[in-house]
Specification:
Length: 120
């Protein structure tokens, strides 16, 4: 059973910082990519940042220069969010494309989501 367990999030004033962390557990053979999406009320779920297995990263234009994604050797991905803005308020979801157990094709997994609220 694969799980993505998120931590971090909360309420912060504009200009402040938060750090999100996501730990993947289970019979994971390979992490193809791992990252974060966010969804505000009435809006679609959009990619925030992602780190690929080779180490390259993708960021949404709206967070470039403010957010940094990193991954350690223990299947954990962190998202450092600086200079937060009210428009960053959303539920943030951890996402991963994983090869698990003996299954050769990768599958997509999601965390439960964590709320980030930025007050003006």
């Amino acid at each position: 059973q694969v799980q993505l367990v998120e931590s971090g999030g909360g309420l912060v004033q504009a200009g402040g910082s938060l750090r999100l962390s996501c730990a993947a557990s289970g019979s994971i053979r390979r992490i193809n990519h791992m990252g974060w999406y966010r969804q505000a009320p009435g809006k679609p779920r959009d990619l925030v940042a992602r780190i690929i297995s080779g180490g390259s990263t993708n960021y949404a234009d709206s967070v470039k220069g403010r957010f940094t994604i990193s991954r350690d050797a223990l299947n954990t991905v962190d998202l450092q969010m600086n200079n937060l803005k009210p428009e960053d308020s959303a539920v943030y979801y951890c996402n991963a494309l994983l090869e698990v157990g003996d299954i050769t094709r990768p599958y997509e997994y999601w965390g439960q989501g964590t709320q980030v609220t930025v007050s003006s």
